[in-house]
Amino acid sequence: MAITLDVTNLVATADGRTGIPVAAVEGARARFAAAHSHLEAQHASGILGFLDLPGNAALTAQSVDFAAKATGRYRDVVVLGIGGSALGPIALRTALKPAGWNAMSDAQRAGWPRLHVLDNVDPRTIGALLASLDLAGTLFMVTSKSGGTGETMAQFLVVQDRLASAGLALRDHVVFVTDPAKGALRAIANREKIPALDVPPNVGGRFSVLSPVGLLPAALSGMDAHAIMAGAADMATRCNTDDLLKNPAGTFAVLQWLADTTQGRRIHVLMPYRDTLRDMAAWFVQLWAESLGKIQPGGASVGPTPIPALGATDQHSQVQLFMEGPQDKTVTFLTTIGHDADVTIPKAFADIEELGYLAGHSLGELLDVEQRATAGALAKRGRPSMTFTLDTVDAWHIGALFMLFGIATVYGGHLYGVNPLDQPGVELGKQYTFAKLGRAGYDAARAEFESLPKSDPRWVL
Ligand code: PA5
Q: Does the pLDDT at position 48 exceed 90?
Protein backbone atom coordinates (compact mmCIF):
# COMPACT_ATOMS: atom_id res chain seq x y z
CA MET A 1 0.00 0.00 0.00
CA ALA A 2 1.62 3.21 -1.09
CA ILE A 3 1.30 6.62 -2.64
CA THR A 4 4.17 7.80 -4.81
CA LEU A 5 4.84 11.37 -5.89
CA ASP A 6 6.71 11.94 -9.14
CA VAL A 7 7.85 15.56 -9.53
CA THR A 8 10.11 15.00 -12.53
CA ASN A 9 7.99 17.25 -14.73
CA LEU A 10 8.16 20.07 -12.19
CA VAL A 11 11.94 20.22 -12.11
CA ALA A 12 13.92 21.98 -14.84
CA THR A 13 16.56 20.06 -16.78
CA ALA A 14 19.79 21.17 -18.42
CA ASP A 15 18.35 20.27 -21.82
CA GLY A 16 15.67 22.88 -21.45
CA ARG A 17 12.64 21.40 -19.70
CA THR A 18 10.79 24.21 -17.94
CA GLY A 19 10.41 23.91 -14.19
CA ILE A 20 11.95 24.74 -10.87
CA PRO A 21 15.76 24.75 -11.15
CA VAL A 22 17.41 21.93 -9.22
CA ALA A 23 19.41 24.55 -7.34
CA ALA A 24 16.19 26.16 -6.15
CA VAL A 25 14.87 22.81 -4.91
CA GLU A 26 18.14 22.18 -3.11
CA GLY A 27 18.11 25.74 -1.81
CA ALA A 28 14.64 25.23 -0.35
CA ARG A 29 15.72 22.31 1.83
CA ALA A 30 16.63 24.56 4.75
CA ARG A 31 13.45 26.56 4.33
CA PHE A 32 11.48 23.33 4.42
CA ALA A 33 13.33 22.10 7.50
CA ALA A 34 12.23 25.32 9.21
CA ALA A 35 8.62 24.73 8.07
CA HIS A 36 8.77 21.21 9.44
CA SER A 37 10.12 22.27 12.81
CA HIS A 38 7.45 24.98 12.92
CA LEU A 39 4.85 22.25 12.36
CA GLU A 40 6.41 20.20 15.15
CA ALA A 41 6.33 23.19 17.48
CA GLN A 42 2.72 23.96 16.61
CA HIS A 43 1.84 20.31 17.14
CA ALA A 44 3.59 20.28 20.50
CA SER A 45 1.68 23.41 21.49
CA GLY A 46 -1.56 21.53 20.83
CA ILE A 47 -2.98 23.50 17.91
CA LEU A 48 -2.65 20.89 15.15
CA GLY A 49 -5.17 18.43 16.47
CA PHE A 50 -5.75 16.77 13.10
CA LEU A 51 -2.32 15.14 13.41
CA ASP A 52 -3.49 13.34 16.55
CA LEU A 53 -6.70 11.96 15.05
CA PRO A 54 -5.22 8.65 13.80
CA GLY A 55 -3.98 7.90 17.32
CA ASN A 56 -7.28 8.82 18.95
CA ALA A 57 -8.91 5.39 19.09
CA ALA A 58 -11.61 6.61 21.47
CA LEU A 59 -12.73 9.26 19.01
CA THR A 60 -12.76 6.82 16.08
CA ALA A 61 -14.79 4.48 18.28
CA GLN A 62 -17.45 7.18 18.72
CA SER A 63 -18.22 6.92 15.00
CA VAL A 64 -17.82 3.17 14.67
CA ASP A 65 -19.94 2.43 17.75
CA PHE A 66 -22.70 4.85 16.82
CA ALA A 67 -22.81 3.39 13.31
CA ALA A 68 -22.95 -0.16 14.68
CA LYS A 69 -25.97 0.71 16.81
CA ALA A 70 -27.63 2.46 13.87
CA THR A 71 -27.19 -0.47 11.48
CA GLY A 72 -30.47 -1.51 9.94
CA ARG A 73 -32.40 1.43 11.39
CA TYR A 74 -32.02 3.92 8.55
CA ARG A 75 -32.43 3.77 4.80
CA ASP A 76 -31.11 7.29 4.30
CA VAL A 77 -28.40 9.29 6.04
CA VAL A 78 -28.38 13.01 5.32
CA VAL A 79 -25.40 15.14 6.29
CA LEU A 80 -26.31 18.77 6.99
CA GLY A 81 -23.20 20.96 6.89
CA ILE A 82 -21.13 23.29 4.78
CA GLY A 83 -17.45 23.84 3.97
CA GLY A 84 -15.22 21.43 5.82
CA SER A 85 -18.26 19.77 7.35
CA ALA A 86 -19.52 18.67 3.94
CA LEU A 87 -16.63 18.40 1.48
CA GLY A 88 -14.93 15.52 3.31
CA PRO A 89 -18.06 13.34 3.43
CA ILE A 90 -18.68 14.08 -0.26
CA ALA A 91 -15.11 13.14 -1.18
CA LEU A 92 -15.39 9.94 0.85
CA ARG A 93 -18.68 8.96 -0.76
CA THR A 94 -17.37 9.53 -4.29
CA ALA A 95 -14.14 7.66 -3.59
CA LEU A 96 -15.36 4.71 -1.59
CA LYS A 97 -18.95 3.97 -2.58
CA PRO A 98 -19.79 2.70 -6.05
CA ALA A 99 -20.96 5.26 -8.60
CA GLY A 100 -24.71 5.74 -8.40
CA TRP A 101 -24.84 4.50 -4.79
CA ASN A 102 -27.93 6.52 -3.92
CA ALA A 103 -29.79 5.23 -6.96
CA MET A 104 -29.16 1.58 -6.12
CA SER A 105 -31.75 -0.72 -4.61
CA ASP A 106 -31.51 -1.75 -0.96
CA ALA A 107 -30.28 -5.16 -2.08
CA GLN A 108 -27.57 -3.67 -4.30
CA ARG A 109 -26.44 -1.57 -1.34
CA ALA A 110 -26.47 -4.70 0.85
CA GLY A 111 -28.74 -2.87 3.27
CA TRP A 112 -26.37 0.06 3.84
CA PRO A 113 -28.11 3.43 3.77
CA ARG A 114 -27.99 5.96 0.98
CA LEU A 115 -25.74 8.90 1.83
CA HIS A 116 -26.81 12.44 0.98
CA VAL A 117 -24.83 15.57 1.77
CA LEU A 118 -26.69 18.88 1.79
CA ASP A 119 -23.86 21.38 1.51
CA ASN A 120 -25.90 24.44 0.64
CA VAL A 121 -29.14 26.21 1.50
CA ASP A 122 -30.66 26.26 -1.95
CA PRO A 123 -34.34 25.69 -1.20
CA ARG A 124 -34.90 23.77 -4.40
CA THR A 125 -32.33 21.10 -3.54
CA ILE A 126 -33.33 20.77 0.09
CA GLY A 127 -37.04 20.80 -0.68
CA ALA A 128 -36.63 18.11 -3.32
CA LEU A 129 -34.54 15.85 -1.10
CA LEU A 130 -36.82 16.16 1.93
CA ALA A 131 -39.88 15.50 -0.22
CA SER A 132 -38.26 12.30 -1.53
CA LEU A 133 -37.36 10.83 1.86
CA ASP A 134 -39.29 8.60 4.23
CA LEU A 135 -38.40 10.55 7.36
CA ALA A 136 -39.18 7.57 9.59
CA GLY A 137 -36.18 5.79 8.05
CA THR A 138 -33.86 8.78 7.87
CA LEU A 139 -30.99 9.90 10.09
CA PHE A 140 -29.88 13.53 9.83
CA MET A 141 -26.27 14.14 10.80
CA VAL A 142 -25.91 17.81 11.66
CA THR A 143 -22.23 18.71 11.41
CA SER A 144 -20.84 21.99 12.60
CA LYS A 145 -17.53 22.38 14.42
CA SER A 146 -18.53 25.79 15.73
CA GLY A 147 -22.05 24.57 16.34
CA GLY A 148 -23.62 27.75 15.02
CA THR A 149 -22.96 28.17 11.29
CA GLY A 150 -25.94 29.98 9.80
CA GLU A 151 -26.49 27.73 6.80
CA THR A 152 -26.31 24.55 8.86
CA MET A 153 -28.55 25.96 11.59
CA ALA A 154 -31.11 26.92 8.93
CA GLN A 155 -30.99 23.40 7.48
CA PHE A 156 -31.42 21.94 10.96
CA LEU A 157 -34.38 24.19 11.74
CA VAL A 158 -36.13 23.05 8.56
CA VAL A 159 -35.41 19.40 9.32
CA GLN A 160 -36.50 19.49 12.95
CA ASP A 161 -39.76 21.09 11.88
CA ARG A 162 -40.37 18.34 9.30
CA LEU A 163 -39.59 15.67 11.89
CA ALA A 164 -41.91 17.28 14.42
CA SER A 165 -44.68 17.51 11.83
CA ALA A 166 -44.23 13.81 11.11
CA GLY A 167 -44.46 13.03 14.83
CA LEU A 168 -40.88 11.77 14.97
CA ALA A 169 -38.59 12.30 17.95
CA LEU A 170 -35.53 14.43 17.25
CA ARG A 171 -33.23 12.21 19.26
CA ASP A 172 -34.16 9.19 17.13
CA HIS A 173 -33.47 10.90 13.83
CA VAL A 174 -30.74 13.42 14.49
CA VAL A 175 -27.11 13.13 15.52
CA PHE A 176 -24.86 16.13 15.99
CA VAL A 177 -21.13 16.31 15.27
CA THR A 178 -19.71 19.35 16.99
CA ASP A 179 -17.36 20.80 19.60
CA PRO A 180 -17.39 18.74 22.82
CA ALA A 181 -18.35 21.68 25.01
CA LYS A 182 -19.08 24.85 23.08
CA GLY A 183 -21.66 26.13 20.64
CA ALA A 184 -25.38 26.06 20.04
CA LEU A 185 -25.53 22.45 18.81
CA ARG A 186 -23.85 21.16 21.98
CA ALA A 187 -26.32 23.16 24.08
CA ILE A 188 -29.28 21.76 22.12
CA ALA A 189 -27.84 18.24 22.37
CA ASN A 190 -27.63 18.55 26.14
CA ARG A 191 -31.11 20.03 26.45
CA GLU A 192 -32.90 17.67 24.04
CA LYS A 193 -30.79 14.56 24.77
CA ILE A 194 -29.72 14.35 21.16
CA PRO A 195 -26.67 12.13 20.55
CA ALA A 196 -23.61 14.22 19.77
CA LEU A 197 -20.15 13.16 18.63
CA ASP A 198 -17.06 15.28 19.14
CA VAL A 199 -14.88 17.41 16.93
CA PRO A 200 -11.85 18.15 19.13
CA PRO A 201 -11.45 21.87 19.85
CA ASN A 202 -8.03 21.90 18.18
CA VAL A 203 -9.30 20.44 14.88
CA GLY A 204 -10.50 23.10 12.45
CA GLY A 205 -13.36 22.55 10.00
CA ARG A 206 -11.36 21.90 6.84
CA PHE A 207 -8.91 19.68 8.75
CA SER A 208 -11.68 17.63 10.36
CA VAL A 209 -12.44 14.89 7.84
CA LEU A 210 -10.61 12.27 9.94
CA SER A 211 -12.79 13.08 12.97
CA PRO A 212 -16.47 12.04 13.20
CA VAL A 213 -17.10 14.71 10.53
CA GLY A 214 -15.92 12.20 7.93
CA LEU A 215 -15.76 8.98 9.90
CA LEU A 216 -19.39 8.92 11.03
CA PRO A 217 -20.89 9.13 7.52
CA ALA A 218 -18.18 6.70 6.42
CA ALA A 219 -19.05 4.15 9.10
CA LEU A 220 -22.80 4.66 8.71
CA SER A 221 -22.58 3.82 5.01
CA GLY A 222 -20.31 0.81 5.37
CA MET A 223 -16.87 2.25 4.70
CA ASP A 224 -13.90 0.94 6.68
CA ALA A 225 -13.20 3.74 9.17
CA HIS A 226 -10.25 1.88 10.70
CA ALA A 227 -8.58 1.50 7.29
CA ILE A 228 -9.05 5.22 6.61
CA MET A 229 -7.30 5.98 9.89
CA ALA A 230 -4.54 3.42 9.25
CA GLY A 231 -3.74 5.14 5.95
CA ALA A 232 -3.73 8.52 7.64
CA ALA A 233 -1.44 7.25 10.41
CA ASP A 234 0.97 5.78 7.89
CA MET A 235 1.15 9.05 5.98
CA ALA A 236 1.66 11.07 9.16
CA THR A 237 4.62 8.83 10.00
CA ARG A 238 6.01 9.08 6.49
CA CYS A 239 5.83 12.88 6.60
CA ASN A 240 7.52 13.06 9.98
CA THR A 241 10.85 14.08 8.51
CA ASP A 242 12.50 17.37 7.62
CA ASP A 243 14.29 15.73 4.69
CA LEU A 244 12.42 17.43 1.86
CA LEU A 245 12.62 14.75 -0.80
CA LYS A 246 11.57 12.01 1.60
CA ASN A 247 8.46 13.90 2.66
CA PRO A 248 5.66 13.88 0.05
CA ALA A 249 3.62 16.58 1.82
CA GLY A 250 6.71 18.74 2.09
CA THR A 251 7.74 18.21 -1.52
CA PHE A 252 4.24 19.02 -2.74
CA ALA A 253 4.03 22.18 -0.62
CA VAL A 254 7.54 23.44 -1.36
CA LEU A 255 7.36 22.91 -5.11
CA GLN A 256 3.94 24.57 -5.35
CA TRP A 257 5.23 27.48 -3.28
CA LEU A 258 8.40 27.82 -5.36
CA ALA A 259 6.40 27.65 -8.58
CA ASP A 260 4.09 30.40 -7.30
CA THR A 261 6.58 32.73 -5.70
CA THR A 262 9.54 32.38 -8.06
CA GLN A 263 7.80 31.71 -11.38
CA GLY A 264 4.36 33.29 -11.04
CA ARG A 265 2.64 29.89 -11.19
CA ARG A 266 0.02 30.84 -8.71
CA ILE A 267 -2.76 28.63 -10.07
CA HIS A 268 -2.53 25.11 -8.72
CA VAL A 269 -4.64 22.63 -10.66
CA LEU A 270 -5.50 19.31 -9.04
CA MET A 271 -6.51 16.90 -11.77
CA PRO A 272 -7.53 13.36 -10.84
CA TYR A 273 -7.73 10.87 -13.70
CA ARG A 274 -10.24 8.78 -11.80
CA ASP A 275 -13.92 9.61 -11.30
CA THR A 276 -13.58 8.22 -7.78
CA LEU A 277 -11.08 10.98 -6.94
CA ARG A 278 -13.07 13.82 -8.50
CA ASP A 279 -14.34 15.18 -5.20
CA MET A 280 -10.92 14.89 -3.53
CA ALA A 281 -10.10 17.82 -5.79
CA ALA A 282 -13.06 19.83 -4.46
CA TRP A 283 -12.03 19.00 -0.89
CA PHE A 284 -8.44 20.05 -1.64
CA VAL A 285 -9.57 23.31 -3.22
CA GLN A 286 -11.22 24.41 0.03
CA LEU A 287 -8.23 23.35 2.10
CA TRP A 288 -5.63 25.09 -0.07
CA ALA A 289 -7.67 28.25 -0.74
CA GLU A 290 -9.15 28.91 2.69
CA SER A 291 -5.88 28.11 4.44
CA LEU A 292 -3.37 29.94 2.28
CA GLY A 293 -5.21 32.85 0.66
CA LYS A 294 -4.41 35.43 3.32
CA ILE A 295 -2.94 38.79 4.22
CA GLN A 296 0.56 38.42 5.66
CA PRO A 297 1.37 40.26 8.90
CA GLY A 298 3.18 42.85 6.76
CA GLY A 299 0.02 43.56 4.77
CA ALA A 300 0.76 41.71 1.52
CA SER A 301 -1.99 39.53 0.07
CA VAL A 302 -0.64 36.10 -0.87
CA GLY A 303 -1.87 32.65 -1.73
CA PRO A 304 -2.24 30.19 -4.56
CA THR A 305 -5.50 29.71 -6.44
CA PRO A 306 -6.46 26.03 -6.53
CA ILE A 307 -8.51 24.79 -9.47
CA PRO A 308 -10.19 21.37 -9.72
CA ALA A 309 -10.10 19.49 -13.00
CA LEU A 310 -10.90 15.94 -14.09
CA GLY A 311 -9.16 13.80 -16.65
CA ALA A 312 -9.99 12.84 -19.29
CA THR A 313 -13.10 15.04 -19.27
CA ASP A 314 -11.16 18.29 -18.98
CA GLN A 315 -8.96 17.40 -21.94
CA HIS A 316 -11.98 18.67 -23.86
CA SER A 317 -12.29 21.78 -21.71
CA GLN A 318 -9.65 23.35 -19.44
CA VAL A 319 -6.61 21.55 -20.87
CA GLN A 320 -6.53 23.97 -23.82
CA LEU A 321 -5.99 26.75 -21.24
CA PHE A 322 -3.40 24.70 -19.36
CA MET A 323 -1.47 24.08 -22.59
CA GLU A 324 -1.55 27.51 -24.21
CA GLY A 325 -2.94 29.98 -21.70
CA PRO A 326 -0.85 32.10 -19.34
CA GLN A 327 2.24 30.46 -17.84
CA ASP A 328 0.73 30.76 -14.36
CA LYS A 329 -0.16 27.17 -13.46
CA THR A 330 1.07 23.90 -12.12
CA VAL A 331 -0.93 20.74 -12.70
CA THR A 332 -0.96 17.93 -10.14
CA PHE A 333 -2.31 14.64 -11.43
CA LEU A 334 -3.89 11.99 -9.22
CA THR A 335 -3.94 8.49 -10.60
CA THR A 336 -3.70 4.84 -9.57
CA ILE A 337 -1.82 1.74 -10.64
CA GLY A 338 -4.33 -0.04 -12.81
CA HIS A 339 -8.05 -0.30 -12.33
CA ASP A 340 -10.19 -2.38 -9.99
CA ALA A 341 -12.69 -2.95 -12.75
CA ASP A 342 -11.73 -2.49 -16.35
CA VAL A 343 -13.69 -2.75 -19.57
CA THR A 344 -12.21 -4.08 -22.78
CA ILE A 345 -13.02 -2.03 -25.85
CA PRO A 346 -14.64 -4.45 -28.31
CA LYS A 347 -13.32 -5.05 -31.78
CA ALA A 348 -15.79 -3.66 -34.27
CA PHE A 349 -15.67 -1.31 -37.23
CA ALA A 350 -11.98 -2.24 -37.50
CA ASP A 351 -11.86 -0.80 -41.03
CA ILE A 352 -12.74 2.69 -39.79
CA GLU A 353 -9.63 4.53 -38.66
CA GLU A 354 -11.22 6.53 -35.82
CA LEU A 355 -12.50 3.37 -34.14
CA GLY A 356 -10.18 0.61 -35.30
CA TYR A 357 -7.13 1.62 -33.24
CA LEU A 358 -9.12 1.40 -30.00
CA ALA A 359 -10.05 -2.25 -30.40
CA GLY A 360 -8.46 -4.62 -27.93
CA HIS A 361 -7.36 -1.89 -25.57
CA SER A 362 -9.34 -1.18 -22.41
CA LEU A 363 -11.09 1.92 -21.10
CA GLY A 364 -8.68 1.99 -18.16
CA GLU A 365 -5.71 1.77 -20.50
CA LEU A 366 -7.13 4.62 -22.56
CA LEU A 367 -7.57 6.77 -19.44
CA ASP A 368 -4.03 6.05 -18.23
CA VAL A 369 -2.46 6.67 -21.61
CA GLU A 370 -4.36 9.95 -21.81
CA GLN A 371 -2.99 11.01 -18.42
CA ARG A 372 0.56 10.29 -19.46
CA ALA A 373 -0.01 11.93 -22.82
CA THR A 374 -1.35 15.07 -21.15
CA ALA A 375 1.58 15.20 -18.73
CA GLY A 376 3.98 14.73 -21.65
CA ALA A 377 2.25 17.35 -23.78
CA LEU A 378 2.34 19.85 -20.91
CA ALA A 379 6.06 19.17 -20.40
CA LYS A 380 6.75 19.58 -24.10
CA ARG A 381 5.10 23.00 -23.98
CA GLY A 382 6.99 24.07 -20.86
CA ARG A 383 4.09 23.51 -18.48
CA PRO A 384 5.17 21.86 -15.19
CA SER A 385 3.22 19.06 -13.57
CA MET A 386 3.59 16.38 -10.93
CA THR A 387 1.79 13.09 -10.33
CA PHE A 388 0.56 11.28 -7.25
CA THR A 389 -0.01 7.57 -7.91
CA LEU A 390 -2.06 5.53 -5.47
CA ASP A 391 -1.86 1.74 -5.54
CA THR A 392 -5.65 1.84 -5.65
CA VAL A 393 -8.59 3.93 -4.46
CA ASP A 394 -9.54 2.38 -1.14
CA ALA A 395 -10.12 3.51 2.43
CA TRP A 396 -6.42 3.26 3.36
CA HIS A 397 -5.22 5.39 0.43
CA ILE A 398 -7.97 7.98 0.86
CA GLY A 399 -7.06 8.37 4.54
CA ALA A 400 -3.41 8.76 3.53
CA LEU A 401 -4.27 11.40 0.94
CA PHE A 402 -6.34 13.42 3.43
CA MET A 403 -3.41 13.43 5.84
CA LEU A 404 -0.88 14.27 3.14
CA PHE A 405 -2.74 17.36 1.97
CA GLY A 406 -3.50 18.44 5.55
CA ILE A 407 0.20 18.37 6.43
CA ALA A 408 1.15 20.05 3.13
CA THR A 409 -1.24 22.86 3.97
CA VAL A 410 0.40 23.50 7.33
CA TYR A 411 3.80 23.65 5.60
CA GLY A 412 2.23 26.00 3.05
CA GLY A 413 1.15 28.32 5.85
CA HIS A 414 4.73 28.64 7.05
CA LEU A 415 6.14 29.05 3.55
CA TYR A 416 3.62 31.75 2.61
CA GLY A 417 3.97 33.42 6.02
CA VAL A 418 0.29 33.12 6.94
CA ASN A 419 -1.78 31.29 9.52
CA PRO A 420 -3.31 28.30 7.68
CA LEU A 421 -5.76 27.58 10.47
CA ASP A 422 -7.92 30.72 10.42
CA GLN A 423 -10.24 32.29 7.86
CA PRO A 424 -10.72 35.97 8.76
CA GLY A 425 -11.66 36.83 5.19
CA VAL A 426 -15.02 35.07 5.39
CA GLU A 427 -16.18 37.05 8.44
CA LEU A 428 -17.31 40.31 6.88
CA GLY A 429 -19.82 38.68 4.53
CA LYS A 430 -21.18 36.68 7.48
CA GLN A 431 -21.60 39.85 9.52
CA TYR A 432 -23.50 41.59 6.72
CA THR A 433 -25.74 38.52 6.40
CA PHE A 434 -26.44 38.47 10.15
CA ALA A 435 -27.17 42.20 10.02
CA LYS A 436 -29.60 41.91 7.11
CA LEU A 437 -31.43 39.01 8.74
CA GLY A 438 -31.89 41.00 11.94
CA ARG A 439 -29.50 39.18 14.28
CA ALA A 440 -29.00 41.17 17.48
CA GLY A 441 -25.66 42.90 17.95
CA TYR A 442 -24.96 43.61 14.29
CA ASP A 443 -26.18 47.22 14.05
CA ALA A 444 -22.75 48.53 13.06
CA ALA A 445 -22.44 45.91 10.32
CA ARG A 446 -25.96 46.82 9.13
CA ALA A 447 -25.03 50.51 8.94
CA GLU A 448 -21.79 49.69 7.13
CA PHE A 449 -23.60 47.45 4.65
CA GLU A 450 -26.24 50.13 3.99
CA SER A 451 -23.47 52.65 3.30
CA LEU A 452 -21.92 50.51 0.54
CA PRO A 453 -22.37 51.87 -2.99
CA LYS A 454 -25.82 51.03 -4.34
CA SER A 455 -26.32 49.47 -7.72
CA ASP A 456 -26.07 52.26 -10.31
CA PRO A 457 -28.77 52.12 -13.01
CA ARG A 458 -26.21 53.30 -15.58
CA TRP A 459 -24.37 50.04 -15.13
CA VAL A 460 -27.37 47.72 -14.97
CA LEU A 461 -28.46 46.25 -18.32
O1 PA5 B 1 -12.56 25.27 7.45
C2 PA5 B 1 -13.39 25.88 8.07
O3 PA5 B 1 -13.23 26.18 9.26
C4 PA5 B 1 -14.70 26.27 7.43
O5 PA5 B 1 -14.73 26.07 6.07
C6 PA5 B 1 -15.81 25.48 8.08
O7 PA5 B 1 -15.67 24.12 7.78
C8 PA5 B 1 -17.18 25.95 7.63
O9 PA5 B 1 -17.28 27.34 7.76
C10 PA5 B 1 -18.25 25.29 8.45
O11 PA5 B 1 -18.01 25.56 9.80
P12 PA5 B 1 -18.66 24.73 10.95
O13 PA5 B 1 -18.17 23.35 10.86
O14 PA5 B 1 -18.23 25.41 12.20
O15 PA5 B 1 -20.15 24.81 10.75
A: yes
Ligand 1, atom 12: closest residue by C-alpha: 144
**For ligand 1, atom 8: residue with the closest CA:** 83
190 and 156 in a common domain: yes
> By residue range, what is the domain housing residue 363?
3-42+230-416
Give the binding-site residues of ligand 1, using a 6 Å CB cut-off.
Answer: 82-85, 144-146, 149, 152, 204-206, 290, 423
Q: Is residue 350 part of a domain?
A: yes
Annotate the chain with three-state secondary structure: CCEEEECHHHECCCCCCCCECHHHHHHHHHHHHHHHHHHHHHHHCCCCHHHHHHHCHHHHHHHHHHHHHHCCCCCEEEEECCCHHHHHHHHHHHHHCCCCHHHCCCCCCCCCCEEEEECCCCHHHHHHHHHHCCHHHEEEEEEECCCCCHHHHHHHHHHHHHHHHCCCCHHHHEEEEECCCCCHHHHHHHHHCCCEEECCCCCCHHHCCCCHHHHHHHHHCCCCHHHHHHHHHHHHHHCCCCCHHHCHHHHHHHHHHHHHHHHCCCEEEEEECCHHHHHHHHHHHHHHHHHHCEECCCCCEECCEEEECCCCHHHHCCHHHHHHCCCCEEEEEEEECCCCCCCECCCCCCCCHHHHCCCCCEHHHHHHHHHHHHHHHHHHCCCCEEEEEECCCCHHHHHHHHHHHHHHHHHHHHHHCCCCCCCHHHHHHHHHHHHHCCCCCCHHHHHHHHCCCCCCHHHCC
Same domain? For 171 and 282 the reply is no
Tell me the percentage of the chain whose pLDDT exceeds 70: 100
Q: Is residue 444 part of a domain?
A: no
Same domain, 195 and 256: no
Residue 432 covered by a domain: no
Residue 51 has pLDDT above 90, yes or no: yes
* Ligand 1 atom index nearest CA of 426: 9
Q: What percent of the chain has pLDDT over 90?
A: 98
